[in-house]
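We emphasize that the prediction below concerns an isolated chain of 293 residues; any contacts that depend on oligomerization or on bound cofactors are therefore not represented. The input was used exactly as deposited, without trimming of termini.
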Amino acid sequence: MERGLSVHTLASYRRDLSRYEATVAENGVAECAAVSPRDIERYVATLRDGNAEHAPLATPSVARAVIAVRGFHKFALQERWSPDDPAAGVSPPTIPLRLPKAITVDEVEQLLYAASESPLGLRDRALLELLYGTGARISEAIGMAVDDVTMLGKDSDAATVRLHGKGGKTRVVPLGSYALQAIDAYLVRSRPELAGKGHGTPALFLGARGTPLSRQGAWLVLQAVAERAGLPRLSPHTLRHSFATHLLDGGADVRVVQELLGHSSVATTQVYTLVTVEKLREVYAASHPRALA
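Result of the prediction step, given as a token string:
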């Protein structure tokens, strides 16, 4: 909580530490001062290999659990609950590099057109235009208030949105004309009716009952629209990945994309450059007469 992590991250760490506590207790360890590096290594092996209580965890989940345990023991040492830090020498497993999946520009257009045909078309179109037009995370989009949108005239180049990201960080990003028009149409022609069904909320995106649209509700919107568009199952991050990939394909600097995405490190953003290099390699192999032996 002191680090300003999201509620989802806090919930994950809480689960990890509860599992850790139960595991070391099964091995006869009753307090953190008695934990040895060997106890932690056994715990990590249990996560990786599974046991009667749970199936083996994926590498990213194991890595997160190790980070949670390391953080706990570092805190315990600072608070003098323990004379040493038994987790200091335990490293999380290396997470294999996974290239983010993006859809094509044509597929984005299919998706946005299908959003207009949904039961709450103006809201759904505004939501998806915002996600693709700004690279916002789903949690950032549903966390927006009406006042987080600054529209200086419907055709203004100065329109922006304020996004509240991870770690309590806020960033302001430009809002393109398509997203601007979609949000304006939603605010004028759809949101007032939805708001009338609720008890008053500053949230930008509302559900059918007038309450703030939930994370799960936004995810279901994306799934339903993708199915209507004839596209494969999409993850909540798909439009964010597509936003970054299409910017880099268009010649945007990786540092600019980093700022737009709200990444604290450019290393996180650089994974998208690998996607564009892979695309170039495919085009080269398909087009150059001497690309293949």
